[in-house]
Write a structure and sequence with these properties.
By secondary structure, the protein is α/β, with parallel strands linked by helices. About 35% of the residues lie in helices and about 15% in strands. β11 and β12 (about 300-305) form a beta hairpin.
Length: about 450
Amino acid sequence: MFKYFPHTEQDIKVMLDKIGVKTIEELFAEIPESLRCGCDYDVPSSMSEIELRRHFASIANKNADLVVFRGAGSYDHYTPSIIPALISREEFLTAYTPYQPEIAQGTLQYIFEFQSMITDLTGMDVSNASMYDGPTATAEAMFMAVSQTKQNKILISKTVNPNIAKVVETYAKYRDIKLEYVNQTNGVTDAADLSAKMIGASGIIVQNPNFFGIIEDYTEVSQIVHDQKGILIMSIDPSTLLTIKTPKEFGADIVTGECQSLGVPMSFGGAYVGFLATTEKLIRKMPGRICGVTNDVDGKRAFVLTLQAREQHIRREKANSNICSNQSLMALWVTIYMSTMGKSGLVEVNRQSSAGAHYLEQQLINTKRFTKVYHQPFLKEFVLKTDIDPKKMEKALLKQGILGGLHLGDIDKAYQGHILFCVTEKRSKAEIDQLVQAIEVLA
């Protein structure tokens, strides 16, 4: 046994027997075969550092550098070079959860700045930190709604990203919360269906822009929910909030979202960082931590953890959440991005993304192989229907180094032939034209 691996073969056997599996490989049984490597890395028993670096580089080089036209919750936005340069400084990279304010003022300050920027974007009264990602933050919002209203049912619109919905389903199952879906009509939440299902519900989860890229008007939805004393939970893309109505303007009670669109690389799905913002009325139902500002004994500005409504700090049975990890490093990433870009920069990102998305939509329609599905306003994502085999299209585009749109038929058979495209400010006109030309030659 290698000196740094403390467990003997017998130790491992005892642990495997205890959990009811025979081999370590069985622990990975949930991972589909299609996602497994299925290859032998053929690593020698020993390597020099130079050889090891070359070996890992050869593996990394197998990852294709694609031109991305796919969003659906993870977006290929530009990352200013200043961010990785600052984020890699040891005082940020190795900082631990800021339990002791006297030695964690820097960490507490940027958490405070992150919260302040989120409240500024959303229009809400207060924001927290420590949310793992957008989907889990939305599930935490569900717990808040159920706790506040004492109603054990939550509604979720079918215009919400299925990845978010699945996470919410999982969290609801183990809290015995009943979850019902509200239908969509023409790509937006069906107000009539919501009205029929709202009785006895704690609230509804909606999304803006929604999964189809549509910018929804939630005025009527908000009215229906609040007439029934319910909670309106809105999952949003924070990078869009300087160009569309804020959740506050729609009367949202809780706002959640994934901050990846604020300059965080896609990174094969993480690490990301979520947020949760709400009204002052619901502040004590919030999970995670809230950083506040005060004055120290010398009258100087100081930062502290103001609220920590979780199981490590209050009675476990009274805790609304058991979230305890600190996502502050990624929150710092987002804070530097927003500080660097500024409001005018974020507006420009949306202007370029929107112009590119509308240009691509028209060019694809001009091929006569695509038709509009929804006649609703959109920003950077849109859905078109095609008669081209989606798998054939994807394969042909990948050969040219392009990751095309997402085939929604793989998620729900009702959307067969529907493709969700996305364009960010990183996509040039030449890249968009290359995508269209690659599709035009398909039979």
